[in-house]
Amino acid sequence: MYSLFIDTHNVDINLALYKEGKLVDSRVKSSSLHHSDNIMPLLAELLKSNNIDVHDLSEILCVNGPGSFTGVRLGVTIAKTLAFTLKLPIRTITSLEMFALSIDSESDKLVIIKDLKGCFGGLFTKDNELKGEYFYKSNQEFEDYVEKNDLRDKIVDNKVDFDKLYDFFMTKETINPHKVNPIYIKVIEALKNDKKS
């Protein structure tokens, strides 16, 4: 029983293979704007080096954003296609949840992912529960937010702990592959603007 984890939301491609809930192998490749060139060879290498093929998979685990438009869409599309064609369950988490759960802390954690104009993020409890809502803030808005709320020492590194991922995924419901949608920066902004209306 193998589970495949796929994440392409940012500059790194993150793939992991679990057998009965235990991490057996992983691949991380920084490919920036070349995810579409690199993900399938990297996935093939991961499966081949473990002597399995896609028919040995029993579920798909996927990060559905937020992140770069093309990156998020690529990973989600591959995950949905595998789940649909192989009739496998699929579970999703956000990139911000992934980074939050990868860092142990005795207090709140501020997880952010930067782009050129600002950052998107979320404030999490030490138990990895989102406090409030995800946000997108310009660079200046973010600096003001951090200062006003005294959060400078709460910002955590964006690391991926593959060992912690699987258990967190198991707290999530499986989803119909057709209903798995990417979360983009603009979606977060649109949701925020809708609530103001």
Topology:
Blueprint: E1 2-7, E2 12-19, E3 22-30, H1 35-49, E4 57-63, H2 69-86, E5 90-93, H3 95-101, E6 109-114, E7 118-124, E8 130-138, H4 139-149, H5 162-169, H6 185-196
Parallel strand pairs: 1-4, 4-5
Antiparallel strand pairs: 1-2, 2-3, 6-7, 7-8
Largest sheet: 5 strands, mixed
DSSP helical segment count: 6
Q: What quaternary form is this?
A: single chain
Q: Beta-sheet strand percentage?
A: 25-35%
- Tell me what the CATH architecture of the domain at 2-96 and 159-182 is: 2-Layer Sandwich
CATH topology of the domain at 2-96 and 159-182: Nucleotidyltransferase, domain 5
**Alpha-carbon distance between the two ends:** 48 Å
Low-confidence stretches: none
Radius of gyration: 17 Å
Could you characterize what this model shows?
This protein has a domain at 2-96 and 159-182: ATPase, nucleotide binding domain (Nucleotidyltransferase, domain 5, 2-Layer Sandwich), CATH 3.30.420. Helix content is 36%, strand content 28%. It has a 5-stranded mixed sheet with strand order 3-2-1-4-5, sandwiched between helices. It has a 3-stranded antiparallel sheet with strand order 6-7-8. It has helices at 35-49, 69-86, 95-101, 139-149, 162-169, 185-196, and strands at residues 2-7, 12-19, 22-30, 57-63, 90-93, 109-114, 118-124, 130-138. The chain contains 6 helices and 8 strands. The protein starts with a strand and ends with a helix. With 197 residues, it is of the alpha/beta class. The model has no long low-confidence stretch (mean pLDDT 91). A hairpin with a 2-residue loop joins strand 2 and strand 3.
